[in-house]
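Instructor's aside before we start: the two examples that follow are unrelated to each other. I chose them only because their records fit on one page, so don't look for a connection. First example below.
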Amino acid sequence: MKKIFFILLLLLGFSGSQAQVLSLQEAVNIALKNSLDIQIAKNNEEASKINNAGGVALALPQVTASLSDNQSLTNLSQKLNNGTNINRPNNANNVVNAGLAANMLVFNGFRIQATRSRLLAIERQNSDVVKAQIQNIVANVVIKYYDIVRQQGYIKTIEQSISVTQKQKEIIEVRKSVGLANNADVYQAQLDLNASLQEMESQALTLMQAKTDLMYLLTQKPDSTFDIQDTIVVDASLSLDSVKAAIKRNPEVQSAEEQIRINTLIVQEVGAQRYPSVSVTGGYNYARSQSSAGNFLLNQNFGPFIGFNVAVPIFNGGMLKRQQQVANIDIKNAEFSRTILMNTLLTNAIKAWQAYQNNLQRIKKEQENNKIADSLLQLTLIRYQYNMATIVEVKEAQRSFVEAGYRLVNLTYAAKVAEVELKRMAGIFPL
């Protein structure tokens, strides 16, 4: 008996000195800290904040400075109107130009305002993407965490079944010692025990792989050793109406709404190009030209300047019209995508709610069945001990007990998954 439980402990790795206990909150915190998907979403959000600047939308002045210095060597040949001829080879010339200019766009059909609004909408959209990614990561961690609890529930049921099989084997060995059983009965009992141990080993493998999956979600070493000491508790307080109302605030829905706004602003940006564009320029220029021969040996001028430019679009082959038509189509597509997303979320919410309600109702009945199956197994084992029940009856009671235990664990886990999914779609942290 001690050997069997030593094997079970070795298989499951439940050594308190080696395995650290991991709580659900700790698992969620680790996932949020280490998730690369969240980091990517946050980087995109940061990039949109950087792009949301006046300079990107051309709302700030454009200032440039220039400097050029050209040295040349030329052969000069001039004939003046007074009959004088000038011929001078290897004439050195130097031309220097420098300037500082600023250009400020004053009006371009309100395109600047539309661009600034679009950049702000993109920033909000990326923020919604981060929120959605966080909720998805948390939901996945919660589901995988409770899957491990479910696998441990299976193991507890198998352990109880093994205990009964071991007890049954001990009874047969006692009977054999007094001549009431033969070797065939002992061999069969040992085969039943070995089969149960094999089932335990298989379930231990499933549990270890579930833990590996959780470590992947937490971005930890896949072979990290940890233990989970928890039970599945289902929140039975959810209502379908509250979930439906909250879906409108779901980050994915908010992101789809922002996409409609972004496409609408793109239409405004394209339409603004039909209007005249007015800009003001100003600056300071310096020019100096020096020559070793010719009529002008030195020519120099400098000073400030100011002016304005007006550009009126007249015809560009209908390009703006086509761009605006395409942008309007993008708005419709964004609206369709938002509608599809809402329909999908509502459909999934109703299906999750149906599973949630159904499983909650069945859990109560299955808890009763589990108690009955346990009582039946214990009673049948006592009757078998006093030779009032057959080995077939014991096996049937064992089978009923194991099936009832599996059903109870599965129903509780399924109800928890439905609860988490409802909270995720409603934009509620699924904890």
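Example two begins here.
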Amino acid sequence: MIIDAHLDIAYNALNFGRDYTLSAAETRRREGPRDLDIATVGLPDALKAGLGLVFGTLFVSPAADALHSPIVYHTPEEAHQQALDQLAYYHGLSARHDVVMVERQADMAALLAARARGQQLQGVVVLMEGADPVLAPSQAAEWQARGVRIIGPAWKATRYCGGTGQPGPLTPLGRELMGELRAAGLTLDVSHMAEQSFWDAMGLFDGPVIASHSNCRALVPNSRADRHLSDEMIRELVGRGAVIGTVLYNRFLVEGWTQEQGKRAVGLDAVVAHIDHVCQIAGDALHVGIGSDSDGGFGTEATPREIDTIADLPKIGEALLARGYSQADVDAVMGGNWQRKLGEILPA
């Protein structure tokens, strides 16, 4: 079973009217010709790929740094309500016969059993990207009760920490949040955290840690360098048993790639290079997976040439096999590592 640890499904639905139940081809037909953000994600494509579980995000856009989002927040209260609206979207999806919320170990076991019987079924684990919807650190437990299992404090800077393009430490609220996440049994997602905030968090938080969608700074040292993990950060995450999700955005895969070069300038060998870099640091293939971030501000025009839609995810496994990885290691990277980590993250 393939697992993708980062898809902005609800954000795309509520901001841009993208219906996850439709194929990417149908979404493209409805949206008409466009040069950017060409849809790659749809449930039919995901099921075709064997994508049996996704981490669906709660991602809301700050007004100061919105990604062309029609829905933005100016206050924590607005962020809170918008995240609740996105959570409601996922629960609406789970009313279908082919989507289920995965909040507990029993849910995961039921999903695996159903798929083993041949049922076309996808699970959703909810991940909050950017913690501004958490009105106060003490509210972390409330989000856990609502079904959120993972919280990433940053996107850009938030009230809790520095983030991509906005460096800085954990704020006093952020330091308090670390303890509340641990008390609530939530997992920390370090993707997008500014490096100083990352190291602050490593000194304060002793619970489960992941990087849902982060690439290797060593391979893209100049392209938004603070968006990627240094080797030292990767070693720290490996030592904590984390899994790191590889992003399929060409600009985050190959140094110097520009939109003008086109998608054909980058191949799956670049994805394999980031996966392999983590494996070489770790000494095994147990700490890396897929965190595609597909339709997360870029579309098929900015993914490797072999990837048209999310239905093409299995080609990553084929590329790893061609590189000399064993089938067992490929299975781990494509989903097994995230499944193992969910064994720690999900409550009984």
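The first strand starts at residue 2 and ends at 7.
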